[in-house]
């Protein structure tokens, strides 16, 4: 048997550099504690299914109504995705073609709001940025690109959430075309039912952006917004939902479904990255069989991490509210030099987090905000439980509070991470058995 190193040695050095860099990334990420709240890993089976010939193809249109030939199997897989994702959401029409959550938002926003005219710009009310609204909900993102007027709902600092009474009043006064809830720094559920009622009373639609919490919703540890009055939901398929990177739209209203389907193609995608569909169908089935156990452990781990960080001396947001009900934890590290410095030091210790604006930070503090945002979903997939969260909190205290040499902590982090090399809550098969990717050809 020729070794990979011998095979690589025959290639031009430029090729070797690309391959070696990618391998280095793969290996390094297996030695890190990844707490980026918007990331996850697919199971080996879903990863194997991701590598398929569909990546070379085009499938403009809907299953069985395509513009090109050659799609008999793509049609089947796309329909399976729509079926399984719809079932996971308690019955819904699924539009799986947006290639990201941002494109899903663009599609829905464009379907609900017409272009600006002499009558003015359409208005959208969005969750307050302090309560986690994503850049795509704002004038700086998709909403702005579509020339929709961005107006923020009022914020309730005590509850770290939308101020319901003031929001209802604002909806009645402004009469927007739609309202957006859901967020990126997202610890506590937004008040869907109350906002839906107010929106509907003025003829507005409620859009719920579940990018972060889709995996918790299908695992029944977060309220399904479609059960509580949201008209339509957008999401990413790779955050708490541990599938391939992509976006999705779900609604129980057939007219809305048809409207978004007419927008996504041809406005926002031409090919829709077909190779992710088999992996998405497999991940949906993983969530069908293991999603509740997974989501349950995610919320337990988030709570355990928050409590452990507080016990180690960190200032964790939302103590009076129980810290978190999602996969996330927010920590104020201002007194240790701010989020940028803490995140950098932690990376040197192989703990990957992102700096984040906290609700009381001014928007221009973006380069060095007070906070860190942590998410436990990926480490939960790798099999970590509450005790492991306490270990992570100790590592973080040593680096950020005690000022220990991160390189020294890194050695222990790498050692610790070695115990978690298998993806849980997934079908227990090795698709590389016998040295071949079973699914390929
Ligand atoms: C991540 C995120 C998005 C964008 O998702 P992409 O798949 O990265 O385009 C949209 N909305 C919210 C609330 C998010 O957190």
Helix count equals: 15
Low-confidence stretches: none
Query: What is the name of the CATH superfamily of the largest domain?
Result: Type I PLP-dependent aspartate aminotransferase-like (Major domain)
Q: How many beta-strand segments?
A: 17
Domain count: 2
Task: Strand order, main sheet: write it out.
Answer: 4-12-11-10-9-5-6
At CATH level 3, the topology of the largest domain is Aspartate Aminotransferase, domain 2
Overall shape: it is globular
| Beta fraction | 5-15%
Q: Distance between the terminal alpha carbons, to the nearest Å?
A: 22 Å
Structural class: alpha/beta
GO cellular component, one term: cytoplasm
Domain Serine hydroxymethyltransferase-like: 16-396
Pathway: Amino-acid biosynthesis; glycine biosynthesis; glycine from L-serine: step 1/1
Enzyme class: transferase
């Amino acid at each position: 048997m020729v070794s990979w190193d011998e095979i690589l040695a025959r290639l031009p050095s430029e090729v070797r550099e690309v391959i070696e860099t990618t391998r280095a990334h793969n290996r390094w990420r297996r030695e890190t504690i990844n707490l980026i709240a918007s990331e996850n890993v697919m199971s080996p089976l879903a990863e194997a299914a991701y590598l398929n010939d569909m990546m070379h193809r085009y499938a403009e249109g809907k299953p069985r109504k395509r513009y090109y030939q050659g799609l008999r199997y793509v049609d089947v897989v796309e329909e399976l995705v729509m079926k399984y994702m719809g079932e996971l959401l308690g019955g819904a029409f699924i539009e799986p073609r947006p290639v990201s959550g941002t494109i899903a938002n663009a599609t829905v926003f464009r379907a609900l709001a017409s272009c600006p005219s002499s009558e003015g710009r359409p208005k959208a009310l969005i969750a307050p940025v302090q309560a986690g609204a994503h850049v795509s909900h704002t004038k700086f993102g998709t909403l702005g690109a579509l020339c929709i007027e961005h107006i923020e709902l009022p914020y309730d600092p005590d509850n770290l959430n939308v101020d319901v009474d003031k929001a209802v009043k604002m909806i009645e006064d402004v009469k927007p075309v739609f309202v957006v809830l859901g967020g990126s720094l997202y610890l506590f559920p937004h008040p869907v039912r109350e906002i839906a009622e107010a929106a509907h009373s003025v003829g507005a639609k409620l859009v719920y952006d579940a990018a972060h919490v889709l995996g918790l919703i299908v695992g029944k540890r977060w309220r399904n917004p479609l059960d509580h009055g949201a008209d339509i939901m957008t999401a990413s398929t790779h955050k708490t939902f541990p599938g391939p990177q992509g976006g999705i739209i779900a609604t129980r209203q057939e007219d809305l479904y048809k409207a978004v389907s007419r927008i996504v193609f041809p406005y926002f995608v031409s090919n829709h990255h077909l190779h992710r569909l088999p992996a998405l169908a497999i991940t949906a089935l993983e969530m069908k069989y293991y999603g509740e156990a997974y989501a349950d452990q995610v919320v337990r781990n988030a709570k355990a991490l928050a409590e452990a960080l507080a016990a180690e001396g960190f200032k964790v947001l939302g103590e009076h509210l129980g810290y978190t009900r999602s996969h996330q934890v927010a920590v104020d590290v201002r007194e240790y030099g701010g989020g940028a410095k803490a995140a950098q030091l932690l990376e040197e210790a192989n703990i990957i987090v992102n700096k984040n604006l906290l609700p009381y930070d001014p928007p221009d503090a973006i380069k060095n905000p007070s906070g860190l945002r942590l998410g436990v979903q990926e480490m939960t997939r790798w099999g970590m439980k509450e005790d492991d969260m306490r270990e992570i909190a100790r590592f973080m205290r040593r680096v950020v509070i005690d000022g220990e040499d991160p390189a020294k902590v890194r050695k222990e982090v790498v050692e610790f991470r070695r115990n978690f090399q298998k993806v849980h809550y997934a079908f227990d098969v090795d698709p590389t058995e016998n040295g071949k990717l079973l699914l390929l050809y």
